[in-house]
Amino acid sequence: MVNIALIGCTGSIGRQVCEVVRRNPHRFRFSALVCGKNEKALSALAEEFHPETALCAAQAEARLSSLFENADVAFIATGGFSGLAYTLAAARAGKKIALANKESLVCGGELVMREVEERKIDLVPVDSEHSALFQCLGFRRGAPYKKLVLTASGGPFLHFTEEEMKGVTASDALRHPTWNMGAKITIDSATLLNKGYEVLEAKWLYGAEFGQIEAVVHPESIVHSLVYFEDGAAVAQLGYPDMKLPIQLALTYPERLPCEKELDLISLGALHFERLPQEKFPCYGLALEAGKAGGTAPTLLNAAAETAVNAFLRGGITFPQIAETVRETLERVPHVRADSFETLREADMRARAVASGYIYGK
Ligand code: MG
Hints:
With about 350 residues, the chain is an alpha/beta fold. Among the domains are: about 1-125, Rossmann fold (3-Layer(aba) Sandwich); about 295-360, Rna Polymerase Sigma Factor, Chain: A. The chain is built from 16 helices and 11 strands. The longest helix is centred in the last third of the chain and has 21 residues, at about 340-360. The mean pLDDT is about 95. Magnesium ion (MG) binds near residues 127, 128 and 198.
């Protein structure tokens, strides 16, 4: 029996983790369930799964050092910068980590990977692209390769002009062509910030140089990513766009259990690939620049983006102003070395204040 501490149990990924546990009650149970604020949904889950601990984030954050005591796996499925504290606590507790929280690596990659390497933590990616890379590498994050290619659906505005993008609304942006996800990540997919984040995730997970990571548009979202090897071979993982497989595989690998329906190649007919139009989606380049700058820069970028996306969802700014807010914040707040979680948390708070000032002060 595998004991799972699930952080972010009521969100889009968390609910699908519950589904995997529901379908495999003889293999998995929850030692802890942590939600953001949705206490009602949490108590329904606690009643169904009987974990030892069921908490809201505000309580859980005060008990980080004991939260993972009875767990075999820490499943970090909460969104945003707040996931980092849990990932670090799970690593320090020596637990296997199934990581669906991108920000843990985007913002805290240096700190997280230091703990993971020192303590030889089994860190398993849940993001579909990184799960695909993990599968292509034979479940060995340290396996040799030449190049990593991340696929991107391109989001709902791939072929929009810059002028057309000025007029899009939150509900336009929330209509993702292939994946069904939470609001923040759906907007990040529309700005391509999400793909920039995934480049940074790949860098930390697979020890890649920026020059070894590419992103390519693949509108069908069937090829989840590819690894190119020294001899010219390219190995890909294919499947329908459904998070169940990467979620389940993170818990069972190297074993595979029944999960998704089989791919029907004939009914798919054709798969398409095109260049990622970076110049139309400045958030992608901003993420890479922040990643290359390192230190607190990606944390500043993320805090500005979280603030700007919230404002956009409420109709407070236009779609292109998300990128403007991020750029302005990165210019106004100097980045420093990321030597501790405290440094990152201060950078996060500072950038949120500056981004809010930029959005609401003008
Ligand atoms: Mg992804």
